[in-house]
Design a protein that fits this description.
Length: 578
Amino acid sequence: MTETPAPDRGVGRVLGTQHTSTREFRVVLEDDDYLQLDDLVVVATDVPKHGEVKTYGVVTEAEAVYEGATFESDTHRIAAEGILPGAKVRSAQVAITRVDPELWVSPDPGEVVRRATGLERHKALYTDEMGRPLAVGTGRDGDPMYVDLDFFDGRKGGHMSISGISGVATKTSFALFFLRMLTAKPEVVGEGAANLRILVFNVKGEDLLWLDKRNKDFTEEAAASWDALGVDPVPFESVAFWAPPRPRSGDVVVPDIGGRQEGVEAFAWTPRQFIDEGLLRFLFTDASDTRNQIPFIEERVESQLQRYAVDVAGEPGAVVLRDPIEGHKPGDVVTAGKGERIIRDLKDLADAIEEFVDPPDAEPDTRWTGRVQAGTVSAFMRRLHAGAVRLGHLIRAGESRRIDRSAAQVTVVGIQSLHDLGQRFVVGALLAETFAEKERSGQRFPLSVIVLDELNKYAPREGQSPIKDMLIDIAQRGRSLGVLLVGAQQTASRVAQEVMENAALKVAGRLDAAEAERAEYGWMLPSTRARARLLKPGTMVVSQPALPVPLVVEFPFPPWATRKEEVDSGDDDPFAGL
């Protein structure tokens, strides 16, 4: 006679002293088992006229109580003195993630609750229905947690928003980890993996200028976490680094960085490129500029520059401004006349523009600015001359030094040494260049991913600016063109609503208590909002359209260095490994 195996009693049973629902239920735990936050569970219910229905969920809270205690002091009488009868009862709150088959009924009280493992775990996370599941960390059980890449790369949605307190939320670290998973999983990314290009702005310190170097603090334990994700824990293999030239460096162009002296190229724009690409508007990115006629003047001047600018023979990138009635046309190369102003940098351009916007004794109709009030023209020129001082070294005649985003899979642009106006200019210019290229091609592939920290500075909730307009355009139309934004900010409530609404993937690290209660985090469960105030570095809350509830994930320690002192000494030795 064959012995009948004992039924699986699971970790507990559905609590029968309160109503269950299609949103959540409680589990009373067995005395010798437990459930912790973020554990995945499943319960089977026999539904009349239908059959078995499985309800999957994630633990959002764990509690314990003494049954039999009436007063607070009864706790001592039960636990310490044993003179009052009572029993310790542990329970867990579960948020329902899925019902399979999709018959939305509540689980029956008293039903056995089991941990969801294997195929049931995939069902609880909808991984079995994801077109292209990409791991974005591990759960409490140490197994991978996934997002559906269709909601990032433009097939069903696009873009990612990462929020959290500066320094402890590890926003940039998570963004880099996500990029590493993208580059390491071409079989998941699919056709978008071919010629994938990633543009990363380094806005603080020089943390991102070491992505190709091994981290000396990387441990075997950290390596095991990467192994669980199926990725070889190595630094980024195809990276190009760019930095602005040092101010007043003369003819010798040297990148303006302190820690890294090799493998970094200096970038700049020539006056010809500055004019042809309409970069003048990115010198006027202050929100106050839109409340007067400065944008009107900028547009008039920009169009006139493109009509008047003529290349100078023997000086690549330099131009002179000549009236079109003199017979020149675009593409002509002329020899500068005696005493004629040759524009070799931004200061030269500002001085030349001043001669046309406010020439002495000129009729208003002959000015580039028309009949605009003199005070507004003066305000325009003050900002232009200030720009020449703060970022003039980015505009210089000579051989082209524009950033080549096709030279490597990941392009890191260091703008941390620039004045705030210079940072805005570089971000705006590169965003415009990237988006214009995709608009010209009209093709979604190859994909272009842009990683931008301090998004609230470039796309603020209030006011207008050319960069904000560009970011809103990318958020709204970028996914159809393969331009994908990974934006990071301390406070999502300060970012333009149009940008936040179009981010299909939302991620948050530790949040300020007041910030966590704002409507921008309505995608979180109440219990998750409370936990977000206490999250440790390396732990993030991830929301995606494929799941009805957010997930808490942990991502591994990076194998690449994030500052100079972390670089493995072997990476600095040219003879290492020989």
